Amino acid sequence: MKRILITGAAGFLGSHLSDRFIKEGYYVIGMDNLITGDLKNIEHLFKLKNFEFYHHDVTKFVNIPGQLDYILHFASPASPIDYLKIPIQTLKVGSLGTHNLLGLARVKKARILIASTSEVYGDPLVHPQTEDYYGNVNTIGPRGVYDEAKRFQESITMAYHTFHGVETRIVRIFNTYGPRMRLNDGRVIPAFIGQALRGEDLTIFGDGSQTRSFCYVDDQVEGIYRLLHSDYPYPVNIGNPDEISIKDFAEEIIKLTGTSQKVVYHPLPVNDPLQRQPDISKAKALLDWEPRVKRAEGMKITYEYFKSLSSEELMKEEH
Ligand code: NAD
Ligand code: UDP
């Protein structure tokens, strides 16, 4: 049985990846310090024989007894309000955490895939974003702690590949959504749906002309699964190119939820990227991958998930 370590396993993407690798017959070792994740996301896995969990901070030395074939490094705060609240931890998990996991991969002769992000492109001047675009990041801006941690993460990963021959994969994930996102993590999809469910107005930041391209989680997981099993060590964009302005997206949410609330405008956060759309030619050519789930379908499933939460969870303030 192949053994895979998934860091950030109690988070949104890590929990879906854990499910997928369990389904494929792997022995899954989840690791998480629960700083933004929740054990609820993986509680259904605890009863399985081929799952175990380590409550551990990956910025501290990481060791796993026995054979290890693959590592997926997904531990990191991922939403702007999270990484603004815990900036140093964000920098540390991308740098020290990645260093620890690359060291583990080297010792175990495991293949490692690291979760990078479209944020390495910053506020992009090239549109749509191709992997060969170097990006436009403000190192000292509020988002710099996340963006630069991820850029460093890519560099050290390539260095381990080049100098130590470690088998590495780098996925640049574009905005992904679905069940198990945290309702109060500040990202636009939980924010808008939470507001609609609580009967609050939807908060658009800026004039709403900024764009994003939202990928349903199952498509993202499929892309990551294929990339891990490919032989390509350079970064690959995985995301859905279906681009929409935040203003139009708010209208879609109003229709989906049937809320009678209106939209209200708040200032645009500093360095909030004005446009974002993945060029996925590389993923198509290398992995024969493209997203299958349309936004209308994915958003319906996501809305059902948020509706199923208790009213206590719905009203919970962000910690
Ligand atoms: P998430 O916050 O739901 O999950 C992250 C998990 O990592 C959490 O469970 C958290 O507790 C854990 N974690 C954080 N620091 C840790 C540490 N030092 N040690 C151990 N565990 C730690 O976020 P997510 O959306 O699932 O994102 C997962 C990964 O994917 C992140 O690396 C993120 O940067 C990347 N990513 C996500 C998106 C997206 O749209 N969801 C986009 C781009 C990149
Ligand atoms: N956004 C918004 N209202 C909110 C939350 C977010 O208008 O209540 C905007 C945000 O400014 C950004 C876009 O929605 O332009 C996507 O934000 P998110 O935090 O989901 O992702 P990211 O900015 O990291 O792509």
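^ nicotinamide-adenine-dinucleotide complex. The longest strand covers residues 111-117. The chain has a mean pLDDT of 97.
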